[in-house]
Amino acid sequence: MLSSALSQASAAVFSVSGYLYRVDAGIRSEFYEGDNFLLTYEFDPLAANINNGPTFSEYYTVNGVANITIGNYQVSAQGVDIIVMDDRDWIPPDRYVASSFYTSERRSAFTGDVVSGLIPYFWDIELGDTQGIALSSDALPSSPLNLSAFDSKTFTLQFASEVTPYAAYGVQRVYGYVTNISAVPEPQSVWLWGVGVLALIGAIRVNKNSMG
Length: 212
Hints:
The longest helix has 25 residues, at 187-211. The protein has 1 helix and 11 strands. The strands form 2 sheets. Strands 1-2-3-4-5-7-8-11 form an 8-stranded antiparallel β-barrel. By secondary structure, it is mainly beta. The protein has one domain. It has one helix at 187-211; strands spanning 12-23, 36-43, 57-70, 73-86, 94-101, 109-112, 119-129, 152-160, 162-163, 168-169, 172-183.
């Protein structure tokens, strides 16, 4: 699996989990309906909006890393793209999409085993709200979104027999439902939390000794 290419101070990391509800026939030797998946992806929460259009914002972290585990299968990608849409002219009007993909000018690098002769080249999660109330703007969220505010919560991982910067051929997919999304604490935050716990334990012991 790929390791972080961002500094700990600048990266935000989300963990997404759920289960597969559909597997295309060409990759059923590896994946099954009901398999659990775990996705972690990191991005720069201060990334600039690279889309000048009026309908959505797009934020790309070239060094962002995504790691996906489904059963015994693991795949990683470098380059994380996030689209945030808060526009009532679209359906659904509120949409959050995180992904890595090769078939674009960004050409995210994927590292993962071949499955039935097919290579991994694309993953995404998409959260959609048909009521248009889940998102208040198209700014990049730095903390996990509230899943209960969205009607659709999906995950896909795609494989292809051939991939070019402009097209993919022989595509096969796994489809999943997202059931949880949370922030992954930075190592520094975990260390500080541990120090705080140890200090509290020490204070309790001192207090007990003084009372005894």
